[in-house]
Structures
1.
Amino acid sequence: MIAGPARAPAGLGDTPGEVAYRRLRADVITGHLAPGRKLGLEELRLAYGAGVSTLREALTRLASEELVVAEGQRGFRVAPVSAEDFAEIADLRLLLERHAIRESFAAGDLDWEGRVVGAHHKLATLERRLLAGQAADPVVWKRYDLEFHQALIEACGSAVLLETYGAAYDRYLRYQMVAVVFRGAVAAEQHAALLDCALKRDADRACRVLEAHVASCVEHVAQTGALLPFAPRRTAEPRRAMAR
């Protein structure tokens, strides 16, 4: 059975299709629907309380975002994960975020600085709890992480850049949620360094810190083998008859 879906916020006036899409999308990104999982429409209908045609439309939208794979007549499956794909998504995130940081640092005002400080405060508080060995909801933790990185770039002045970055970050976030990545004090220190760079408007140093931040996350996932449980199973090849 499918686990209870993560609740994505629904706006007033959202259609049933939009609600189903947001809930399914949230469950894929947070790992509630595991990579490679078959998405049977009847099972989804019972779990999400939506019609088959509505679910098929939502899954088709997710397939266009490469979060779900359409398998023709066989239906849909959650997109698989791999170390190679994670590295490519990380590179895309870096490409977008570095450019956005430079634009945002140049244009941000005092109100922007306040939002960056506030976002970092929430993230740093939760990181301190994690470092102290306290339990924390990974969804809340990663939401604070996202909010801080979004605050850093929100003054870039380009809605298209922010939207494209958001889509890339969601794919990156799915890997973090699947691998349950927390790298300890080094990640918290890098976030603090990014805050310092923002307040000093030091975009060059911020980009270097960001590169190390993302690269170490990708390396950590590879070293821990966190993605191996989701690797597709290989079918055994039939043995060849020995030549006489």
2.
Amino acid sequence: MFNLISNSLRKRAKVMLILLPVLLVSDQLWAKSSKLLILGDSLSAGYGLTQAQSWVSLLQDAWQKSDISVVNAAISGETTDGALARLPRLLDQHTPSHVFVELGGNDGLQGHPIAKMRSNLAKIVELSQSSGATVILQEMQIPTNYGRRYTELFTGAYAAVAKDHNVVLLPFFLADIALNSDLMQADGIHPNAKAQPIIAESMAQTLKPLVAP
């Protein structure tokens, strides 16, 4: 009788050893995670800095052991036209759960029509949402020397797109930093290396509740 029980227990142990890797793989497949695609311009690409210094890279490092991964698709000089053209391939390649849109600054600095910029932003949001991604829209600002009407229309475009497409709109992330010359590069447009950890910490606190699975 003892031998029969012992053999039965050994068989069950073998079955469990066989099933254990399968169960572990199953748990991994079902584990939730988020992937944040950052679609931006030089402010997110780390213009004038090494890649490791940029706030996006610092954010990636901070979240390395979390269930959130970050893909930086920001390019210096990017406009909403360029980002819209690149977006379908990026969505196919990375299948993000969330898309952070930090665009429009170059459109404004180049004096592009606000209606065109707003249309491009709307299409970027629509494409991202149709892929299943949640969109987070970053409000941008331009210098006031472009005239009151243009700057008001520029800023207003973000609120309009966010309202029309029911997406989260974040206030301009450099509002305080841009006013501090110690945190800006000589061009007065791009934050310097000293500013990057400040931006990364602020964005980590802002973005994590929005993208955490």
3.
Amino acid sequence: MTPDAVVRLVAARCLTYPDERLYEELPLLLRAVAGVPGAEGMRDLLGHLERTPLLDLAAHYTDTFDTRNRRCLYLTWWTDGDTRRRGLSLVGIKRTYREHGLEFDSDELPDFLPAALEFAALHEEPGTALLQEHRAGLELLRLALVAAGTPYARALEAVCGTLPGPSPETREEARALARSGPPRELVGLEPLGPGVELPWPTTHRAERTPV
């Protein structure tokens, strides 16, 4: 597994809702990133997770990742907002997983960042293309987490570091990638855009399709 794949896989685990299983896996995750180039930020985040009581960490996670503060873990929220296009985008992501032998089986949406990162670790070329397609949203999320002063920013910094080219230094530069923020068109859809809290994630799974 390449260094980029390791960073993505560990980041995927760290960006899911914290639970007892995460604490059990921390020694394994720390060993996985030991000495891996580009994983310094992940080691810092894992150290923070290790030192923080579960209840405190869960509360911080919930406060950190929401749409009201534009810190959303769902990739198509950044590109499609509350439009009909979001449904088509979700179908496209699910199709991408399936084309590479993975059947998405989860209560989560397929654009949940940890799911996309897991895919991008297992299938680096198409996974990098998927992340690059949503690069503007990832960079805006990174900048928002840095501004919030949360240790989770280190995960996004590490993930963006696995993508080609430099990261934007300002929100204006990141917004230039996206041209504009999430569209606000509401046409027969339940609102999922800015100002509305999404259901909090608990788990995700990508299972290999039987041959």
